[in-house]
Fold this sequence. Notes:
Chain A has helices at 12-24, 32-43, 48-58, 62-71, 91-95, 98-109, 154-159; strands spanning 83-88, 122-127, 139-141, 144-146. Chain A is α+β, with helices and mostly antiparallel strands. Chain B has 5 domains: 4-111, Glutaredoxin (3-Layer(aba) Sandwich), CATH 3.40.30; 129-338, NADH-ubiquinone oxidoreductase 51kDa subunit (Rossmann fold); 349-432, Ubiquitin-like (UB roll); 437-524, NADH-ubiquinone oxidoreductase 51kDa subunit, iron-sulphur binding domain (de novo design (two linked rop proteins)); 538-594, Alpha-Beta Plaits.
Amino acid sequence: MHTPMNKYELNDSHKKTIKEICESFGNKHGELINILHRTQEKLGYLPEAVQNEIALNLDMPLAKVYGVVSFYSFFTMTPKGKYPISVCLGTACFVRGAERIVETLEEELKIKVGQVTEDGKFSLDCLRCIGACGLAPVILIGDDVHGRLTPDMIKGILKQYK
Amino acid sequence: MYKMQLLVCGGTGCQASASATIVDKLNESLKAHGLTEDAQVVITGCFGFCEKGPIVKVIPDNTFYTQVTPEDAEEIVAEHILKGRRVSRLLYEDPETKEHVSDSKHMGFYQKQMRIALRNCGFIDPENIDEYIARDGYSALAQVITELTPDQAIDMLKQSGLRGRGGAGFPAGLKWEFTKNYTADQKYVVCNADEGDPGAFMDRSILEGDPNSVIEAMAICGYCIGANKGVVYIRAEYPLAIHRLQVAIEQANEYGLLGKNILGTDFSFEMELRYGAGAFVCGEETALIASMEGGRGEPNFKPPFPAESGYNKKPTCVNNVETFANVPVIYLKGPEWFSSIGTEKSKGTKVFALAGKINNVGLIEVPMGITLREIIFEIGGGIKDGKKFKAVQTGGPSGGCLTEKDLDTPIDFDSLLAAGSMMGSGGMIVMDEDDCMVSIAKFYLEFIVEESCGKCTPCRVGNKRMLETLEKICGGKGDMEDLDNLRNMAHVIRDTSLCGLGQTSPNPVLSTLDNFYDEYVAHVKDKKCEAKQCKALATYTIIPEACTGCTVCARNCPTDAITGERRQPHFINQDLCIRCGVCYTKCKFNAILVQ
């Protein structure tokens, strides 16, 4: 999933991947969101160079592609860590102390929400409700759900991903 | 046929607690005991009782095991399946009588519930269409397309009184009729599965537990309005629900229940999925359609309504997941049966995601007209840790907070509106004495500010200004004038915003201002936060008896406000303290007192 990719310049294989994705959706403007989903799945994130390539393939203004990418929280213009961490900030998690979980994670990882650790191992984001309110507060690390958390559990959980 | 079945909950909550491993272990044990011919393990949708998950239910004796771990699998098989003896330590314990309850029918959590939309969740394998068919699945579709005209079918839906479960409560039958009345070469049925409400997981559970009921209803709708295409717009954040829908659509196509000339009639219906990408505003139907067309999910003026000009500018009928899930039963049991349930203006049941400071977190379905007291104290089992009930928030970021005085109001679409909240999609978050209502209002506004699409000014700018005011109040810098400003801004935003998101966005602020005005006043006048949630309003002191002099607080204090000798009680200099709360978080001996 995480092909090393220069943020500013794409090599031919990246361009080929993007072209194939756009073609698989018939280069239709109406399929832009699906194309972005698939591209992010393949390349990890959607920096300007990738958006530009998509715009060229679909023959639409880059501003339009950027408008869509920046509108939806699922699309990211920065790379994620090897283990992306998402803290659920749904209401159920909020009233059961999710904010303190975020603070503890920021402290442990020495990064802020939206950033990646220096070694590229963890990235930290917040999201709205994954629907596991029975386990509140909840975090996702990759696809693993960790629930019923207290701040003192964070250190041990992060250790599992060293 | 198997003599026994082990139903294992495969909902999101239980899967997060290793229910997939439990399935593997159960299968291993069955094999080891040579019981694979006699008993079968089935992964089902959500049972609803998420608090006590993972759930394993044994059929036919309906034994309901709670909080099962993979290590318990062997005992369940060896004792229950082989020897017919229940594993009593895994049974639910009634919190009052302390007795074990083996059957869900006798649990407080289930007694007051009535399951229509969730009728199959937790009973069938959602990835096997035969199980849905065995419970009368697709017979409503067969009946409608072979025996009824579209007008007759729409009339039945109108008679049932079913109202849209997505939030606004618009009568579903009318919506179908409007869409039918427009002539066009192409029409669409759209299922809104963009459940963006924080703390709500009703639609997700239905799609994960019973995807076929939604597909069947969409096909019925297609027949009624004259559409041969159905699209489910679903959040990309729901991978399991997406997977189960895909499986169900594939199987329905194989069985000829979707596709060309369904059941030998002239009616054809195809389905596809479209993925959302994380934008709350896309729950609004015009924004949802803009997003389906590949663009920014910004709402548009109505009229024209989607019934006239929707997806690809064609007549489109948009209903939400729960609305659709109700439809097949209405045709099977008749509109009279459905309209006999509920209140005068709100018929049937409503699914709620009950969460927050409550003992039984979970997914519940109750008849309209039930009281909040019944939901919170009987089904929900009361407030966690014996704390005092303070408020219940319904309707998510568009709803409001209800208090003690509303507990005995029978709830339906209209009574919730009258009480200053709304039904919304069904999130229900319970709060206790430790929750600061000003912070809660701030929490919802943060959400709104982040999710506002920016198209119209009142919502984009107004909510930002309101949030700044609330931040000022929580930061201890508010004054009485701010409270009036909040109310004024709220009214302007409510009256002038373009779409439903903006028009309802001030509700959390207005309802907390109405119900908890004293708490706001305490924040601005006395600079006090009773619930101790607003750090800037707290005073931190050290309890000398509890302090061991470990120096952790002093070393972590960013302003060196804490002094003291090693192994001697420390002291906080209030003039230097910036109330950041670090000492409180760091202290291992509970020696920091927050007032």
